[in-house]
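Hi all, posting the design record for the shared folder.

TITLE: backbone redesign
STEP: 1 of 1
STRUCTURE INPUT:
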């Protein structure tokens, strides 16, 4: 370390990204209206599934979710029905909507095949493309 090393320009660290995605499997951006019902409840709640993959999905609803871990029924387009067990991994409130990150705990092989079929039929523009 010499006298002139003091005047050397210091390297700047790159800025950290605002949002770091830690998912190993990216999600399809679909923004699809759906209905969800928790086990033991009578009524379905209107919701929006914003993105989806085989590990989970992002859900936007107007009310808070009653349970963090639950069995639910999820309907898309009155045609696709999924009976799944979920776990809430994160939650935030944006413009009076409750946004949740949902992880599948149990998905039957039949339901996995239905997810692929639904993506091919209804969201072909998103299928196979990731952000």
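Okay, here is what came back for every position:
SEQUENCE:
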């Amino acid at each position: 370390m010499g006298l002139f090393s003091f005047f050397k320009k210091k390297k700047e660290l790159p800025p950290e990204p605002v949002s770091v995605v830690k998912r190993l499997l990216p999600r399809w951006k679909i923004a699809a209206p759906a209905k969800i019902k928790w086990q033991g409840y009578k009524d379905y709640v209107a919701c929006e599934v914003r993105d989806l993959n085989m590990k989970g999905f992002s859900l936007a609803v107007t009310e808070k979710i009653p349970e963090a871990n639950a069995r639910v029924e999820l309907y898309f387009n009155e045609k696709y029905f999924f009976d799944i067990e979920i776990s809430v991994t994160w939650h935030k409130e944006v413009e009076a909507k409750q946004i949740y990150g949902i992880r599948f705990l149990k998905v039957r092989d039949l339901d996995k095949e239905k997810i692929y079929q639904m993506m091919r039929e209804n969201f072909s523009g998103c299928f196979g493309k990731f952000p």
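COMMENT: The beta strands are 28-38, 45-52, 56-61, 69-76, 80-94, 97-106.
Let me know if anyone wants the other runs.
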